[in-house]
Amino acid sequence: MPAILGTGEHRYRVVENFAKLPNGWQLTDVASVAVDSKDRVYVFNRGAHPMVVLDREGNFLRSFGEGLFSRAHGLHIDADDNLYCTDDGDHTVRKCTTDGKVLLTIGIPAKPAPFMSGEPFHRCTHTALSPKGEIYVSDGYGNARVHKYTPDGKLIKSWGEPGTDPGQFNIVHNIATDADGWVYVADRENHRVQVFNGEGKYETQWNNLHRPCALCCCGGGKSPTFVIGELGPGMAVNRKVPNLGPRLSIVDATGKRIARLGGEQGPGVASGKFLAPHGIALDSKGDIYVGEVGVTDWKTSFPDEEMPAAVRATRCLQKLERVQE
Questions:
Q1: C-alpha distances out from residue 182 to 130, 199, 298, Å
Q2: 3-state DSSP assignment of residue 112
Q3: What is the pLDDT of residues 163-215, one digit of tens each?
Q4: Which is nearest to 36 in space by CA: 66, 61, 11, 65?
Q5: Are 75 and 87 in contact (CB under 8 A)?
Q6: Residues 282, 33 contacting (CB under 8 angstroms)
Q7: Which residues are 167's β-sheet partners?
Q8: Contact partners, residue 210, CB within 8 Å, separation at least 6
Q9: How many CB atoms lie within 10 A of CB 24?
Q10: Which residues of 218-248 are buried (b: 16+ CB within 10 A; e: fewer)?
Q11: What percent helix, strand, coil does the chain show, rounded to 5?
């Protein structure tokens, strides 16, 4: 029987063997995922076919991005179904159509800014849009910054520096916005989500999170909810400690937890378990798609175990179907 995660009105059924790929194809790590206005699922992955497109039943539609993307990391889709693809391998953000035509490139491919210089980009991680279409970029692994751009890619301002104080970051890993223009930043290794206004002024932070990695704003309007993907332990000393994830948390617009999905007994490939939630998207039915970097994370979580072939093939993409009351 498929596993059921969550409680009350936030209950989800794990869809077994969701992705149906052409023979011989592998997703490997699924860094991020997005869903368009027709409920087509865009799977930004680190396999030979960087963008795999599926329907909501998991049937293969097409792929693109071969030879274009270096290392998939972040994916965001706007109201016009334009895809914003963040590539931390070549330090760029590319705005693309749903068939892969590049409309805009921000950053110079394969030319990173100096490490921790604050200049864009050094292994940028994700994007989000303001209500006016301005582009926020989280940056990332080799910087501790958020950059704000005009819709046509001109830098407006940047904020953030390394550290643990408000407005400082320790791996600024993901970014989201809401309809009012608030900016939410997954400050991964500081175990928090920081909240800013649209100009980068620190407002508050959400705590009681464990290595928040994926971040999705959903529901719209004045009372959005957020789904946060949390990574499990990253050190040998606490590798087997329970109740730290990996898991999904659903919170309201103040950061108050509404529900939590999985994570009580650590990572795994069994139904109802996660490996390393790295990207999240919802479709029109409220179903959740989770991209995981299970291949990269395997040796951290399971240093003495051989990785099952399914992890490299399709297991790094999961669909959680909302259970209707």
A1: 8, 9, 35
A2: coil
A3: 999 999 999 999 999 999 999 999 999 999 999 999 999 999 999 999 999 99
A4: 61
A5: no
A6: no
A7: none
A8: 191, 230, 231, 232, 244, 245, 247
A9: 7
A10: bbeeeebbbbbbbbbbbeeeebeeeebbbbb
A11: 5, 45, 50
User: Which of helix, strand or coil describes residue 219?
Assistant: coil
pLDDT per position as a tens digit, 115-173: 999 999 999 999 999 999 999 999 999 999 999 999 999 999 999 999 999 999 999 99
Please, what's the b/e burial string for 142-157 (b: 16 or more CB within 10 A of its CB; e: otherwise)?
Answer: bbbbbbbbeeeeeeee
CA 120 to chain centroid: 20
CATH number at residue 304: 2.120.10.30
Domain count, the chain: 1
| 175 vs 127: CA distance, rounded Å | 6
Q: Name the region of 282 (left: φ>0; alpha: ψ -120 to 50; beta: rest).
A: beta
Residues 6+ apart with CB under 8 A from 124: 73, 74, 86, 87, 88, 91, 92, 93, 107, 137, 138, 139, 140, 143
Cα gap 138→76, rounded to integer Å: 12
Expressed as residue numbers, the domain containing 272 is 4-322
Q: Give pTM, 2 decimals.
A: 0.97
Where is 297: in which H helix or E strand? helix 294-301
Question: Residue 256: which residues within 8 A CB-CB, separation 6 or more?
Answer: none
